[in-house]
Automatic annotation (TrEMBL):
Keywords for this protein: Membrane, Repeat, Transmembrane, Transmembrane helix, Transport
Annotated compartments: Membrane
Record-stated family: Belongs to the mitochondrial carrier (TC 2.A.29) family.
Residues spanning the signal sequence: none
Entry protein name: Solute carrier family 25 member 44-like
Gene: LOC100374466
A Pfam family: Mito_carr
Amino acid sequence: MTSPPREAKIIEWDDMDKRKFYGFGFSIMMGIRAGIYPTILVKTRLQVQKHDTFYKGTWDAFKKIIRYEGMRGLYRGFMVNAFTVFSGQCYITTYELTRTKLAHCSNFTRSFVAGGAASLIAQSITVPCDVVSQLLMMQGQTGDGRVIAGVSPVKKTFGVIQTIWVQEGVPGFYRGYLASLLTFIPNSALWWPFYHFYWQQLVSIAPSGVPFIALQAVAGPAAGMTSATLTNPMDIIRTRLQVSGGTSIIETFNELIKEDGMKGLTKGLTARYVATVPTSFMICVSYEFIKRISLKSHLAETLHW
């Protein structure tokens, strides 16, 4: 007899023990954030620089940062950026609760709407952290890529915060907020449907002996690259607005095209892939793992993966 086709079963919010979910989730996501931060720093510097004034590409940027700044240079601004882990908890809670409220809709609709809503909530927390950490990523860098030393990371952080507060007040911490929403809401809204789509397609063609977690490990990066490609132009504009100021999204876009033509819309895309692929891999695998070990006891015994 032919065995019935496997079903790509999604663990829902009501299936999980929330204490386990948040406890394991916070620790694992902090580790992921530390692992991918260097690629975020490189992407930021590439997107902000005009033409190829110092860094000639992703790998060149990595080499020069390590040469001139050491390994610590890859973690400039990490202390502030680490606070985005809390926004990550808000993100996933919003995502799961929204999916629950839309239980009557198709999985595509649930994933698309929930992903967008989760990003909307999270960005209100993330943007101020991004503004400060991105300025710290760039702080002290001279024309030849060298970095002015002698100031502790804590003093640099408070110095940046004080400067923003004195010069711009609260609005200064929300530079590029609209651009962030226009970047991350579509990115998040696209990532989840693509993730579930790729996973379901892989389940339908993979041999029955292949574990679901292995298929999810492939579906996550595929979804990440798809959404990153579609939203990269707005990500460049967002980064420039947050780091350099600027007056509007349209003006920044026109300036970018004037500098490098349509090719400018791919600035930092390789670095974004380098960040997105392992991030999507780690997030989907760790998230699915967290959900499985957080299953309520009576479900853990009945569900097979």
